[in-house]
Write a structure and sequence with these properties.
Blueprint lengths: L2 H11 L24 E3 L2 E6 L4 E3 L20 E4 L6 H8 L5 E6 L4 H6 L1 H5 L3 E6 L14 H12 L8 H4 L4 H15 E6 L8 E4 L2 E4 L6 H4 L11 E4 L3 H13 L5 E3 L1 H10 L6 H12 L1 H6 L16 H5 L2 H17 L1 E4 L7 H14 L4 E5 L4 H5 L18 E4 L9 E2 L2 E2 L10 E5 L10 E2 L8 E2 L1 H11 L5 E5 L8 H11 L4 H7 L6 H16 L8 H7 L2 H10 E2 L3 H7 L10 E2 L3 E3 L12 H10 L34 H21 L1 H26 L5 E3 L10 H7 L8 E3 L5 H22 L8 H15 L9 E4 L3 H19 L3 E4 L6 E2 L11 H8 L6 H4 L9 E4 L14 E4 L6 H8 L11 E7 L5 H20 L10 H17 L21 H13 L10 E5 L8 E8 L15 E6 L5 E3 L4 H12 L7 H10 L7 H14 L5 H7 L6 H4 L8 E9 L1
Parallel strand pairs: 5-6, 6-7, 12-20, 12-21, 13-14, 13-17, 17-20, 22-31, 23-31, 26-29, 26-30, 27-29, 30-31, 32-36
Antiparallel strand pairs: 1-2, 2-3, 4-10, 5-8, 7-11, 8-9, 9-10, 15-16, 18-19, 24-25, 27-28, 33-34, 33-36, 34-35
Helix pairs in contact: 7-10, 11-37, 14-15, 24-34, 25-26, 25-27, 25-34, 26-28, 34-35
Length: about 1150
C-alpha cells in the first residue's frame, strides 16, 4: 500500500489540530506523546506522525523533509480488528525466540491466554506500563482522580471490565497460575513513574504496532469493548527501528521508569493461590461496603480515646454485646437515634449501660426513662454501694419513669418534677420504648378544655426538641406489633418529628413518611394472601430497598438463634435446651356438681355491667350538657361514653382473665363490683328521697386491671365521668344494676365452696412442685418461678403454700408483686424483711452476683411467686423451671416471662416451661372470649348505630391469638417468631461494617485484590454444601423494584444441584452464613483445597461452577431470551454483548465461596 494513500486515509479519520508547535503540521488528534517533541537524555527528538517515527532529518513532506519520505514507498498495513485482528497478526508474526517490547496502559492474563502458544516460545518480553502502575508512591486521598484509574489498571491484570465474560467462566485461577510462571521466566515489567503522557506501541522483532491502548483481549480483537473503531498501524523495518530505539531509550531511563516485575507477579499470584476463607469473607465485605469506608468520618465512630473500653461495664460485655454497643454509638452519632431490638435474654440493659458510660466519659448528661417496675433494675448500677458490681464506673445518669411525662409537679424517684430541666439531656435511653409506639395525642377534659399532651408528645416536645441536641436510644424486644407505624412513631423521637432533616441523612429515593406508607400498603396486601403464599420471603421480596435502608440505618436486632449461630459463645456458655412444654388443664374444682367454666362464662355474658356506662341513661333533654366534640370540633355523639366504653370492655375482659387466674381472684373481683353497684344503688335511693347526688368512677378498683389492657382504654375521653343522677333515667339504670347484682350473688354463692382444699388448680401446682423437687431437671437445682398476671392470685398462692413448702421441703419462698414489699419465709438476722433486689439476688445468686453483694449471707430462696412486674429486664437464669399459673392473653407476655430463665450463659443444661390452661379446648376458650366481648360491644354500640360489632381487625386479632396460643401449648416460641408478619431481626448490616473497619486497620491494601478469587470451606449442618457467589451488577436497571439492599452487589447461595438455598433478597442471612463459615478460618483447609483441585483439574475444568454461576444470575433476574445466555458459552459472536439484555454479562464476579 502506498504511503501517501495511507496518510490521506488516516488524515480523514483524524483531523489535524491548530497549534504553534513546530510539529503542528504533522500532529494527529490522538493526543499521544508521539508526534510531539520528546526529551530523552537531554536531546530534543522529532517524532513524525501518523506512526510516530523518530527523525532527526530536515523537514520535506508537508514542510518536513524526513529521510523516510524522500522518494520512497514503504510496505505498511492497518489492522482494524474487523477484517483482521491483532491477535491473528501477532500469532503469525511471533516466531520461536522472538523478542517482544510493548508499551501499553495495562496487561491482562486473558491476553496471555489468547496468545499462549506463541508467547510460550518467545525469548523475552519487556513491558512498560505507560501510566503509573504498581509504583511505590501512594496517591493522597485528595488525588483520587489519579489514584482510582491506577487501581483499575492494576486490577486489569486479572481482567478488564470488558473481560468480565472470561472471568465469569471461572478459569481465572488456572490461567493466572500459568501466566505467573511464564512471567517469572520470560517477562520484565516497568512502569512510568511520572505524570508525563506516554502513548502505547509494540515491537515484535523488526515489526512495530502503533498506536495501542492496552494489552487485553479488546486490543487483540477477541472482544469488542466500547471502541467505535480501532486502527493499529503495522510497520516493518526500517520504520520499526525507530520505535525500537525509542523503547530502548525509555527502558534504560530510570528517572521515568520503575521496575515492577515482582509486584505484577505478586498480584497475579493472588488470583491463583489458595485463599483463607476469612479473607474471602472480608474481600466480600470490602467490595460491598467500600463506599461506606470512603465516606467514613472519625466523628461517627466510637472515640476510643474516651477510655470506654477500659471501663468495668465494657469488660463485662459479651462479644455480641460489644458489637451492638459500637454500632449503637455509630448510629447515634450519624442519625441521632437507634432502636436496640435484641430478643429477650440477650442483655439489652448491659449493652445500653456501656453506651451510657461512653457518653458520660464525654461529659454528656444522660436520662433513663423506664417503666416504674424496672426502676431497681437501673438504679442498682448507679448506686455508690460496695455491692454494685459497676460502682467503679461511677455511672451518674438520672432515672425517671414513663408516667412522669404525664405529670407536671410532685416528686418522683427523689426528683421534683416541677423543677426538672427536661431539655438539658444529651442522651435519653428509653427502656421498653414500645410503650410509645402509638404516637402523639392531645386530650381534653369533659368540657373540651385544658388540652393535654400525652406522654409521647411531652417526650418529643419537652425532652428532645427543647434545649440541647438530644440523642435517643430505644430498647425494646417488640418495637413492632402489627403496624409499621409502630416503628415509625418511635423513630420520630430520634429525628424530632422533622422528617426532612432525617431524609437528608438517609440514602433513600423517597421520604421517610412515604417509605413507611408504602411499606404498610405492601404489608396490608400481603396479609390478604392465602396462608400458603403468605411467607416472610414473599413479603421481603415486595418491600422496597428504601425500607431496608431505613431499618439498617437505625435499628439493631439479633435473635437468640442469630447469636447461637453466628457468634462463638464457647466463653459465654450457650442457651439451655428447652424441654417440651408441659400443658396442664386442671378442673375448676374436685367437688361434684360444682359450677363449670362454661356455666360461669354464660353467666358473665348475661351481665350488663351498666355500672360502668351511666352516660347511656342520660335523659335526651340533658344530653347536650355532656356532649363531647371530636377532633374536627363537631359533636362526636359519644355522650361522654368513650371512657365508659373502655372501662366496661376492660372490666369484662378482666373478669374472664381473673377467672382463668384463680377462683380466689375472680371471687374478689365479683365482691368489688358488687360493692361498687351497691354504692350506686344507695345514691339512687338518695335521689329518690330528694337528695341531690352524682355518680362518677373515682372509686373504680383500677388495681384489678391488667394494665396491658388498660393502657389505652382507661384514658379515652379525658377526665373522669361525673353525672348528676337527676339528669338520668336512674330508674332504668337501677333495674340494670339490680339484674347484675342477682347474677353476681349467684356466682359468689356457687363459688363459696371452692376453698384451697378443693381448688384443683392449686392442687395441681403442689403436685408439679413435688415432681420437680423429687426429679430435678439439673442436679441439685430446686428453683421455681410461678408467674401470674394478678397480685391477688400471687398472694393467694403464697399465703396457701409458702409455709407448707417450708415445712415439708425446707425451701424458702418469696412473693414479689410490685404493689407490696417482698414477703418471704426467709428471715435474715437484723432485717425486718427483704427488699425487691435483695429477694431476687437470693433467688438467683449467680446471675445477680450474690457473692459480691451479700458475701455473708449463705441463705438462698428457691421459690419465687411473682406478677409481671419482673417479666421484663430481669436475669434469673439460676432457675430452670417456670410455671405460668395463668395464660396471659398476649402471647408475647408468655415468651417474656420465659426469657427470665431462657438466657445465654445459663449453667442449666435444660429448662422447663409449664403452662396452666382452663379446662377447655383452645377453640372453646377463644370462642367464649369472643362471644363475651361481642356481647359487651353490641350493648354499647346500639346507641351509635354500628351494626358490625367485631371489626375485621378484631377478628384478625382473635385468629392471630388462636394460632399463637395453639403453638404455645406444644412448644416454646421465640419472640421474633410470634409475629405473623415481618421481624426486623434479619435486616441490619452494621455489624459487618464494623467487622470490616477492624480488619482494614490491619490490612490496608485490600483495594489491590483482584476480582474472581475463591476459597473452599467445610460444610456443616448450618452451612450445607453448595456455592455462594458475590456479584456486581454493571447495569443499574437490574435492581428490580428497588428491592436489593446491597445493590449493585448481589449474593446468591446455591446447592450443588443448582437449587437456591438463599436468594439475593436476604443479604443479612447470606452475610451471616459467610461469617459463620469463614470467620477465624485464617488459613486454607489443605485437604479441602486438594480435593477441589483434583475435581477441577487445578482450575481448568470449572464447567460445574460456571453453570451454577449462570443459575445464580437467573435467580436474580428473568432473562428476556434464553439464547442470550446460551450464546455466552458457545462459539461465535454473542448476542448478549450486542443487545442490552440483563443477563450474565451484566454481572461481574467479585468472589465465590465453595462449601464442601
Amino acid at each position: 500500500m502506498h504511503l501517501t494513500n495511507i496518510t490521506d486515509r488516516i488524515e480523514r479519520l483524524q483531523p489535524r489540530r491548530k497549534t504553534t508547535d513546530s510539529t503542528a503540521k504533522c500532529l494527529p488528534s490522538d493526543g499521544h506523546l508521539f508526534g510531539k517533541a520528546l526529551f530523552l537524555n537531554g536531546a530534543r527528538k522529532h517524532l513524525c506522525p501518523p506512526y510516530g517515527v523518530q527523525s532527526t532529518f530536515k523537514r520535506a513532506h508537508n514542510g518536513c523533509s524526513c529521510a523516510y519520505y524522500s522518494s520512497k514507498t514503504f510496505s505498511m498495513e492497518i489492522i482494524d480488528n474487523i477484517h483482521k485482528t491483532w491477535r491473528d497478526d501477532l500469532t503469525a508474526t511471533i516466531q520461536h525466540g522472538s523478542k517482544l517490547s510493548i508499551a501499553a496502559s495495562c496487561f491482562s492474563i486473558y491476553a496471555y491466554q489468547e496468545l499462549k502458544v506463541p508467547l510460550e516460545s518467545i525469548d523475552e518480553l519487556r513491558f512498560i506500563f505507560t501510566s503509573p502502575t504498581f509504583v511505590t508512591e501512594k496517591a493522597d486521598k485528595q488525588k483520587r482522580e489519579f489514584y482510582i484509574p491506577r487501581l483499575h489498571r492494576e486490577r486489569s491484570l486479572t481482567g478488564t471490565e470488558f473481560e468480565v465474560k472470561l472471568r465469569n467462566e471461572l478459569t481465572q485461577r488456572a490461567i493466572a497460575k500459568e501466566c505467573a510462571e511464564w512471567i517469572r521466566q520470560k517477562v520484565h515489567f516497568k512502569s512510568n513513574r511520572t505524570k508525563e503522557n506516554m502513548a502505547g506501541f509494540g515491537i515484535v522483532n523488526h515489526t512495530a504496532y502503533a498506536p495501542i491502548g492496552g494489552f487485553t483481549t479488546v486490543e487483540l480483537g477477541s472482544d469488542r469493548g466500547d471502541n467505535a473503531y480501532m486502527m493499529i498501524n503495522k510497520l516493518e523495518a526500517p520504520l520499526s527501528q525507530d520505535y525500537l530505539q525509542l523503547f530502548n531509550q525509555l527502558w534504560n531511563d530510570n528517572t521515568h521508569l520503575q521496575d515492577v516485575t515482582e509486584e505484577v507477579i505478586e498480584s497475579i499470584s493472588n488470583a491463583y493461590k489458595e485463599n483463607a476463607p476469612e479473607f474471602i469473607y472480608f474481600i466480600t465485605l470490602y467490595n460491598i461496603f467500600r463506599e461506606f469506608l470512603d465516606d467514613l468520618s472519625e466523628d461517627v465512630l466510637p472515640n476510643e480515646a474516651t477510655g470506654f473500653k477500659e471501663t468495668l461495664i465494657w469488660k463485662k460485655l459479651y462479644n455480641f454485646q460489644k458489637d451492638a454497643a459500637l454500632a449503637i454509638i455509630n448510629k447515634l452519632e450519624k442519625y441521632n437515634g437507634c432502636i436496640l431490638a435484641d430478643s429477650v435474654g440477650l442483655g439489652k440493659t448491659f449493652t445500653a449501660l456501656s453506651v451510657i458510660k461512653y457518653y458520660e466519659n464525654r461529659n454528656k448528661s444522660v436520662l433513663v426513662l423506664c417503666p416504674k417496675k424496672l426502676h431497681d433494675n437501673w438504679a442498682t448500677y448507679r448506686s455508690n454501694y460496695v455491692n454494685n458490681p459497676l460502682a467503679g464506673d461511677r455511672l451518674r445518669y438520672d432515672i425517671l419513669f414513663h408516667t412522669d411525662l404525664g405529670r407536671t409537679h410532685g416528686d418522683s424517684n427523689g426528683y421534683d418534677l416541677g423543677k426538672i430541666n427536661w431539655g438539658n439531656y444529651d442522651l435519653v435511653v428509653i427502656d421498653e420504648s414500645h410503650n410509645f409506639r402509638n404516637g402523639g395525642k392531645i386530650t381534653t377534659d369533659e368540657n373540651d378544655e385544658n388540652p393535654r399532651e400525652n406522654r409521647y408528645l411531652r417526650l418529643l416536645n419537652e425532652v428532645i426538641r427543647k434545649g440541647v441536641k438530644t440523642k435517643v436510644l430505644m430498647l425494646s424486644a417488640t418495637p413492632v406489633n402489627n403496624r409499621f407505624n409502630d416503628l415509625k412513631n418511635q423513630l420520630q423521637l430520634a429525628y424530632e418529628g422533622e422528617a426532612a432533616q432525617f431524609d437528608k441523612l438517609l440514602k433513600t429515593e423517597t421520604s421517610i413518611d412515604d417509605i413507611f406508607r408504602q411499606a404498610q400498603q405492601v404489608y396490608n396486601q400481603w396479609a390478604k394472601l392465602p396462608e400458603t403464599e403468605r411467607t416472610t420471603e414473599r413479603l421481603l421480596s415486595e418491600l422496597s430497598f428504601d425500607f431496608f435502608e431505613v431499618l439498617d440505618s437505625v435499628t439493631i436486632a439479633r435473635s437468640r438463634r442469630h447469636i447461637e449461630r453466628y457468634y462463638d459463645t464457647s466463653a459465654i456458655g450457650s442457651f439451655p435446651e428447652r424441654l417440651p412444654v408441659l400443658s396442664q388443664r386442671p378442673h375448676l374444682t374436685d367437688l361434684d356438681s360444682a359450677i363449670t367454666y362454661h356455666e360461669i362464662y354464660e353467666l358473665i355474658r348475661k351481665l350488663n355491667l351498666a355500672i360502668y356506662t351511666p352516660s347511656e341513661f342520660i335523659l335526651g333533654s340533658k344530653l347536650h350538657q355532656y356532649q363531647l366534640l371530636d377532633d374536627d370540633g363537631m359533636e362526636s355523639g359519644l355522650s361522654m361514653s368513650g371512657r365508659e366504653q373502655g372501662l366496661r370492655k376492660l372490666m369484662t375482659i378482666n373478669l374472664l382473665k381473673r377467672l382463668e387466674s384463680s377462683v380466689h381472684s375472680f371471687r374478689l373481683t365479683l365482691e368489688r363490683i358488687k360493692a361498687f353497684i351497691d354504692a350506686a344503688l344507695t345514691k339512687i335511693e338518695q335521689t329518690q328521697q330528694g337528695i341531690a347526688s352524682t355518680i362518677d368512677d373515682n372509686n373504680l378498683p383500677v388495681d384489678d386491671f391488667d394494665l396491658d389492657d388498660a393502657a389505652d382504654d382507661l384514658f379515652i375521653g379525658g377526665g373522669k365521668t361525673t353525672i348528676a343522677l337527676a339528669d338520668m333515667d336512674y330508674l332504668s339504670w337501677k333495674r340494670h344494676l339490680e339484674d347484675d347484682v342477682q347474677i353476681l350473688e349467684l356466682l359468689m354463692s356457687m363459688l363459696q365452696d371452692i376453698t384451697p382444699e378443693h381448688d384443683s388448680k392449686l392442687l395441681q401446682l403442689m403436685e408439679d412442685l413435688h415432681n420437680k423437687w423429687a426429679n430435678p431437671i439439673n442436679e441439685g437445682n430446686k428453683k421455681v418461678i410461678i408467674f401470674t398476671a394478678f397480685s391477688d392470685t400471687a398472694e393467694y398462692i403464697y399465703d396457701t403454700l409458702a409455709n407448707q413448702i417450708k415445712a415439708k421441703y425446707g425451701l424458702d419462698s418469696v412473693l414479689i408483686t410490685g404493689t407490696v414489699d417482698a414477703r418471704s419465709t426467709l428471715k435474715l438476722k437484723g432485717q425486718r424483711g427483704l427488699s425487691f433486689n435483695q429477694a431476687l439476688t437470693l433467688f438467683s445468686p449467680r446471675a445477680k452476683d450474690k457473692a459480691a453483694l451479700y458475701p455473708n449471707t449463705p441463705e438462698e430462696i428457691d421459690v419465687l411467686i411473682a406478677t409481671d412486674c419482673i417479666s421484663e429486664g430481669q436475669n434469673l437464669q439460676d432457675c430452670d423451671y417456670l410455671i405460668n399459673y395463668d395464660i396471659h392473653w398476649n402471647p408475647v407476655r408468655i415468651i417474656q416471662r420465659f426469657g427470665r430463665i431462657d438466657r445465654i450463659g445459663s449453667k442449666n443444661k435444660q429448662i422447663q416451661l409449664v403452662n396452666y390452661w382452663p379446662d377447655l379446648t383452645l377453640d372453646e376458650y377463644i370462642n367464649l372470649k369472643a362471644r363475651v366481648e361481642n356481647r359487651m360491644k353490641v350493648s354499647i354500640m346500639t346507641s351509635t348505630g354500628d351494626d358490625n360489632p367485631l371489626s375485621n381487625e378484631e377478628k384478625g386479632d382473635l385468629e392471630y391469638r388462636r394460632k399463637q396460643l395453639k403453638r404455645l401449648q406444644e412448644e416454646v416460641v421465640d419472640l421474633e417468631e410470634m409475629s405473623s408478619g415481618i421481624s426486623i431481626m434479619d435486616l441490619g448490616l452494621n455489624e459487618f461494617r464494623l467487622d470490616l473497619i477492624a480488619y482494614t486497620k490491619q490490612h490496608p491494601n485490600m483495594d489491590l485484590t483482584p476480582f474472581g478469587m475463591s476459597a473452599v470451606v467445610k460444610a456443616t449442618d448450618l452451612v450445607p454444601p453448595g456455592v455462594i457467589y458475590i456479584l456486581k451488577n454493571r447495569n443499574n436497571g437490574v435492581n428490580i423494584d428497588q428491592t436489593n439492599q446491597l445493590h449493585p452487589f448481589y449474593m446468591v447461595y446455591l446447592s450443588n444441584e443448582g437449587e437456591v438455598r438463599c436468594n439475593h433478597l436476604s443479604p443479612k442471612r447470606l452475610l451471616d452464613t459467610m461469617r459463620l463459615a469463614c470467620k477465624d478460618q485464617t488459613s486454607p483447609d489443605v485437604k479441602l483445597c486438594q480435593q477441589f483441585n483434583r475435581e477441577t483439574k487445578d482450575g481448568y475444568k470449572m464447567d460445574t461452577y460456571s453453570r451454577l454461576l449462570q443459575k445464580a444470575v437467573e435467580s436474580i433476574i428473568s432473562v428476556k431470551d434464553e439464547t442470550d445466555i446460551d450464546s455466552l458459552f458457545s462459539n461465535g459472536e454473542t448476542t448478549a454483548l450486542q443487545n442490552n439484555v440483563k443477563g450474565l454479562d451484566d454481572f461481574e464476579l467479585i468472589a465465590f465461596l465453595v462449601i464442601k
